[in-house]
Write a structure and sequence with these properties.
about 120 residues; mainly alpha; two-stranded antiparallel sheet; 2 strands; gas vesicle; GvpL/GvpF; Gas vesicle protein
Amino acid sequence: PDPAAAPAADLNPGRAYLAGRRRMRRTAEDAWQAAGRTAARLTETAGSLAVDHVAHRPQRGDLAGRAPGTNVSNDTYLVPADRVDEFRTGVLAAAEGLPGVHVEVTGPWAPYSFSLPPEPAR
Protein backbone atom coordinates (compact mmCIF):
# COMPACT_ATOMS: atom_id res chain seq x y z
CA PRO A 1 0.00 0.00 0.00
CA ASP A 2 1.00 3.56 -0.66
CA PRO A 3 2.03 5.17 2.65
CA ALA A 4 0.63 8.49 1.42
CA ALA A 5 -2.78 6.87 0.84
CA ALA A 6 -3.45 6.09 4.50
CA PRO A 7 -3.30 8.64 7.30
CA ALA A 8 -0.30 8.35 9.58
CA ALA A 9 -1.10 6.64 12.86
CA ASP A 10 0.44 9.50 14.81
CA LEU A 11 -2.04 12.09 13.47
CA ASN A 12 -4.91 13.17 15.65
CA PRO A 13 -8.38 12.78 14.06
CA GLY A 14 -8.54 16.41 12.91
CA ARG A 15 -5.16 16.31 11.20
CA ALA A 16 -5.93 12.90 9.70
CA TYR A 17 -9.17 14.32 8.28
CA LEU A 18 -7.36 17.31 6.76
CA ALA A 19 -4.63 15.07 5.33
CA GLY A 20 -7.35 12.92 3.71
CA ARG A 21 -9.02 16.00 2.24
CA ARG A 22 -5.68 17.17 0.79
CA ARG A 23 -5.16 13.75 -0.81
CA MET A 24 -8.67 13.86 -2.30
CA ARG A 25 -8.07 17.37 -3.66
CA ARG A 26 -4.71 16.34 -5.18
CA THR A 27 -6.34 13.30 -6.78
CA ALA A 28 -9.10 15.48 -8.25
CA GLU A 29 -6.55 18.03 -9.50
CA ASP A 30 -4.45 15.27 -11.08
CA ALA A 31 -7.55 13.87 -12.83
CA TRP A 32 -8.54 17.33 -14.09
CA GLN A 33 -5.03 17.96 -15.44
CA ALA A 34 -4.99 14.56 -17.16
CA ALA A 35 -8.38 15.33 -18.73
CA GLY A 36 -7.05 18.67 -19.95
CA ARG A 37 -4.00 17.03 -21.53
CA THR A 38 -6.20 14.44 -23.22
CA ALA A 39 -8.56 17.14 -24.52
CA ALA A 40 -5.57 19.09 -25.87
CA ARG A 41 -4.30 16.01 -27.74
CA LEU A 42 -7.74 15.35 -29.21
CA THR A 43 -8.07 19.03 -30.16
CA GLU A 44 -4.73 18.82 -31.95
CA THR A 45 -5.81 15.71 -33.86
CA ALA A 46 -9.19 17.20 -34.79
CA GLY A 47 -7.60 20.53 -35.74
CA SER A 48 -5.22 18.82 -38.14
CA LEU A 49 -8.23 17.41 -40.02
CA ALA A 50 -10.28 20.63 -40.06
CA VAL A 51 -10.08 24.01 -41.77
CA ASP A 52 -10.99 25.99 -38.64
CA HIS A 53 -11.85 25.45 -35.00
CA VAL A 54 -13.88 27.29 -32.35
CA ALA A 55 -13.73 26.36 -28.66
CA HIS A 56 -17.04 26.81 -26.86
CA ARG A 57 -17.73 26.81 -23.15
CA PRO A 58 -18.02 23.22 -21.85
CA GLN A 59 -21.63 22.24 -21.26
CA ARG A 60 -23.13 21.02 -17.99
CA GLY A 61 -26.20 19.02 -17.11
CA ASP A 62 -28.45 17.75 -19.89
CA LEU A 63 -26.60 19.83 -22.49
CA ALA A 64 -23.37 17.91 -21.80
CA GLY A 65 -24.69 14.76 -23.46
CA ARG A 66 -25.56 11.29 -22.28
CA ALA A 67 -22.19 10.11 -20.96
CA PRO A 68 -21.46 10.33 -17.24
CA GLY A 69 -18.69 12.61 -16.02
CA THR A 70 -17.68 16.20 -16.62
CA ASN A 71 -17.56 17.90 -20.01
CA VAL A 72 -14.04 19.32 -20.38
CA SER A 73 -14.13 20.31 -24.05
CA ASN A 74 -16.89 21.52 -26.35
CA ASP A 75 -15.41 22.39 -29.71
CA THR A 76 -16.71 23.05 -33.20
CA TYR A 77 -14.67 22.22 -36.29
CA LEU A 78 -15.14 23.42 -39.84
CA VAL A 79 -14.54 20.32 -41.94
CA PRO A 80 -14.80 20.17 -45.75
CA ALA A 81 -17.64 17.89 -46.84
CA ASP A 82 -15.26 15.48 -48.54
CA ARG A 83 -13.28 15.00 -45.28
CA VAL A 84 -16.17 14.43 -42.83
CA ASP A 85 -15.68 10.66 -42.67
CA GLU A 86 -11.91 11.03 -42.29
CA PHE A 87 -12.46 13.58 -39.50
CA ARG A 88 -14.94 11.39 -37.61
CA THR A 89 -12.74 8.28 -37.96
CA GLY A 90 -9.56 10.14 -36.98
CA VAL A 91 -11.00 11.79 -33.88
CA LEU A 92 -12.70 8.63 -32.63
CA ALA A 93 -9.51 6.60 -33.26
CA ALA A 94 -7.47 9.15 -31.27
CA ALA A 95 -9.84 8.70 -28.31
CA GLU A 96 -9.94 4.91 -28.51
CA GLY A 97 -8.48 3.12 -25.51
CA LEU A 98 -8.31 6.22 -23.33
CA PRO A 99 -9.80 5.22 -19.96
CA GLY A 100 -12.66 7.40 -18.78
CA VAL A 101 -12.83 9.38 -22.04
CA HIS A 102 -16.01 9.70 -24.06
CA VAL A 103 -15.87 11.61 -27.35
CA GLU A 104 -19.02 12.50 -29.20
CA VAL A 105 -18.74 13.59 -32.84
CA THR A 106 -21.94 15.01 -34.32
CA GLY A 107 -22.81 16.71 -37.56
CA PRO A 108 -22.26 17.83 -40.13
CA TRP A 109 -24.07 20.98 -39.10
CA ALA A 110 -24.47 24.40 -40.67
CA PRO A 111 -21.31 26.44 -39.90
CA TYR A 112 -22.99 28.87 -37.47
CA SER A 113 -19.91 29.01 -35.24
CA PHE A 114 -17.88 30.39 -38.14
CA SER A 115 -20.23 33.13 -39.33
CA LEU A 116 -19.70 36.72 -38.30
CA PRO A 117 -22.35 39.30 -37.48
CA PRO A 118 -22.79 41.99 -40.13
CA GLU A 119 -20.75 45.15 -39.81
CA PRO A 120 -22.75 48.01 -38.27
CA ALA A 121 -24.01 50.61 -40.73
CA ARG A 122 -21.97 53.80 -40.76
